[in-house]
Amino acid sequence: MAKHKLAASFVKSAPVGKHNDGTGLWLVKRADGGAQWMLRVTVHGRRREMGLGGLNSVSLKQARDAADHWRAIAASGVDPIKERERQNRERARDHNTLRIVAEEAFEAKKAELKGDGKAGRWFSPLELHVLPKLGQVPIEEIDQRDIQAALSPIWHEKADTARKALNRLGIVLRHGAALGLNVDLQATEKAKALLGKSRHKPQNVPALHWSEVPEFYASLAEPTITHLALRFLILTGVRSSPVRFLHIDQIEDGIWTIPGEGMKGRRDRTADFRVPLSREALGVVDLAKPFMRQGYLFPSFKKGVISDATMARLMERRGMAERPHGFRSSLRTWLAEETNAPNEVAETMLAHVTGTSVERAYRRTDFLEQRRALLERWADHVSSAKVE
């Protein structure tokens, strides 16, 4: 039996410093009056120092018992610190449910999302289709069959939502792995194999042919917020969200600078995107200024800005199958059929990323002046119809 060096009476009044009890157990007394137990062991030729708790909560006898236990672990060739961490993870296993880890992953992801993800679109595929079935299951137990069962009801009918849910779930699993949890990082790919190829055939957003755009543009003659927003969207080829959230401070010297976080589909969400405004587009801005509220050119009647569906409803009420997003296709087709714009310029018109990462690294231009000339020609085209 090992001979101990410390007495209980000494431990209570030990001076500041390190006091050896023998066989690797030490009492460390700090200048602030606190004290803790520490065990030194050697594993695989490497010295490890392991805290065993504070003096206020761990007595001398308890510290010696704990030291005996962890020394035996070390003697078997197992790192006692890693073993304790493993045991702690095992005890916490039931608390690391898919929902808890998913919410933690969402918090970590928020900085990359528009408006810190307040709109909920990133999390909603999980919230609606995965967590109701698997939310209370420990994430370490989640396998491909669980995922298959959760997503099979929407795999063909709501293919895009199912794809997003699978993508988000993969991110959550990687977050769990980063936490040190024993998750199957291949579970989503395995589930995809089990689910099979989706029968869903994606449909492009219906779009007016570019030759029909002038007639529609001419029909937006009323100086209402909805008409003006649609006209501006058509003239710029930008998605509806940046148009709806257009703030007057974003326009300077005929250039509209869209903050990077407002740009969907770009790899670098921190990079701003410049849109040269045609004379026609600047005229729309002037017409919208009387409606401006808190700097936003297209406010709603109640608060905030017009909703995502406002412009679409106008087209729907007219019995049109086409939707606002389709005007981006109208512009792109016009560029291909009526201009000699290089592909990289045409794609940049729609804020699409082109070329390899190396090509993009060396390409230090956004083709602003080329796009300015093309958008001026596009504005001439769309505003060419007579207003009846």
Give the secondary structure arrangement, pairings included:
Blueprint: H1 8-12, E1 17-22, E2 25-29, E3 35-43, E4 46-54, H2 60-75, H3 80-92, H4 98-109, H5 124-129, H6 131-134, H7 144-151, H8 159-178, H9 187-195, H10 213-218, H11 225-236, H12 240-244, E5 251-252, E6 255-258, E7 273-276, H13 279-288, H14 310-317, H15 326-338, H16 343-349, H17 357-362, H18 368-382
Antiparallel strand pairs: 1-2, 2-3, 3-4, 5-6, 6-7
Helix pairs in contact: 4-8, 7-9, 11-13
Word description of this protein:
It is a single chain. This protein is an alpha+beta fold and 388 residues long. It has three domains: 8-92, Double Stranded RNA Binding Domain; 96-195, Tyrosine recombinase, N-terminal domain (DNA polymerase, domain 1, Orthogonal Bundle); 210-382, hpI Integrase, Chain A (Orthogonal Bundle), CATH 1.10.443.10. It contains 18 helices and seven strands. The protein has helices at 8-12, 60-75, 80-92, 98-109, 124-129, 131-134, 144-151, 159-178, 187-195, 213-218, 225-236, 240-244, 279-288, 310-317, 326-338, 343-349, 357-362, 368-382, and strands at 17-22, 25-29, 35-43, 46-54, 251-252, 255-258, 273-276. Strands 1-2-3-4 form a four-stranded antiparallel β-sheet, covered by helices on one side. A three-stranded antiparallel β-sheet has the order 5-6-7. Helix 4 (98-109) packs across helix 8, helix 7 crosses helix 9 (187-195) and helix 11 (225-236) runs antiparallel to helix 13 (279-288). The protein is elongated, with a radius of gyration of 32 Å. It starts with 7 loop residues before the first helix and ends in a 6-residue tail after the last helix. The model has no long low-confidence stretch (mean pLDDT 87).
